[in-house]
Amino acid sequence: MADLDKGNIDPNVETNPSTLGLYTKCYAGLIMEGNDGKADFTIDDDGKSTLLRNIFNFNELPTDEAICWWSDGGLTDISYNKYNAATPTLKYLYYRLMSNISFENNFLNLDAAKEEDNTRYAEVRVIRAYNYFLMLDFFGDPAFVEKSSSESPYQAHTYNPKFEANKTYTRAELLQMGREFLFKWVEKELLEAEPDLLPAKPEKDTDADYGRIDKGACWLLLSRLYLNAGTYLNNDGQDNPYWDKALQYAENVIKSDYALFDDSRISETAKGNGYQPYDLLFMGDNGSNGASCEAILPLMQDGTMTQGYGGSLFYIAALWNDAMKSVTGKDAGTTENAWSGMRVRPSFLKVFFNNPSVVVKKEAKDIRKMNIDDRAIFWGKGNDKNDRTLELGENKSFFSGIVTPKWNNNYAEGGTPHDSKFVDTDFFLFRVAEAYLNAAEAEMHLNGEGSDKAKGYIDKLRDRAHAEKHSSYTLNDVLDERARELYCEGLRRTDLIRFNQYGGNKATYKWELKGGSDNGSNFDKTKNVYPLPSSEILANKNLTQIDGYGDTEN
Predict the structure, then answer these.
(1) For the whole model, what pTM was predicted?
(2) H/E element holding 141?
């Protein structure tokens, strides 16, 4: 997959062009706006259709790790946990997932697809399983389709063997049956695909198989699925019968050829340019600077070949303005550096700083010099016209709240980006660091918070970040370590739900503007899943709205 347009094709295998086209479309759906340069469905802004952008909007904005002051598409409603079935951006997430699944179904339904290359066939099964995993996580009981058809799809719960069509169920019961079905279905797809996948092996962007799904990606997705089994099966993230499986598949990754990118792997050139290993994971040359040893599934970006506004560019542009600089004092490496939208909330900063106000008026390079944690990549300055505050206030400005220049398009080892506007920064959708965190959490549940093995996994990450190691760790420490390592990478909402700290009366953690109130307030646990978009409910009589929401909203 070194060339997204061509894929990795064995010259000795005769390949049907239509099969090849669908194969590349399945990968493109993870990061591109559409397969012809336009969105695959009707939308006012093609960039808003992209999966990565929607993962940020729905897994980061409603949490402590991010907030947006833009009002378009209901982004502030999402930030305040006030979303409903009519929230405009919600349908973009749903349509993107359904569009991706339709391409994957089309490929998998072709007899020639498996006959030509059962490895590529297995890869697409994993991609489809990932899209349905997101459906499970976001919606719980979405429409479910395995075959290409012109008929309106039925909901996932109708495929659960427990479902009886002539019985009456509450919406909560239907939601739970849908979750159970999708959990088992995603698990089955991944387990059946795994034997036919490429070996777990890191690549650089000059290697033919860079960007392809291999056994490592399958293992980490299985670990993520099992880690959240309590949420999906018991509606309680801590009541999980699959901790052992979450640990097993995380350790499969840890024991593989993949590795944390740490001090032993960074080049002298990058070090001489002022970078630490964590920085290189999010830079324009991350496919070639050595950091890809950690990239279990890199989604490829090239400023000349994969142009768009919803992939890695979004993670730079939406989190930067033109006054900001990187940890080495460089600009964003792209002229799209001033969307000025997303900030982090003060409560999140407490995982790094006892007193978050210390970052106010400081540049990223100044915060780095504090030698607290290399992952603390923040910008606390304003510009010539505006001071920046720690507090969010009424969330009316980009200067209310601290920002992060974690992503940029610069080259750690020197060199010039391929384009001045669009970026080369690959997005590492699955990283080895997550496997260490999954393993530590599962191990603590199985063998106690005093587990030496769990401590060892966390220490590895803190060593890489040059952060002080602790004598022991708790499960709450694991949640905080996940925030430090993975912030703004699209996992926070899922993590908070698993720890019962998102919706519901068990949640003791309140962050600024949680639930829409200044100091944060709890909201009902039904908000742990999103509603089906009103447009889908109106268009498909086979669908029942998710528990906790009105059928449609204005």
Answers:
(1) 0.96
(2) none
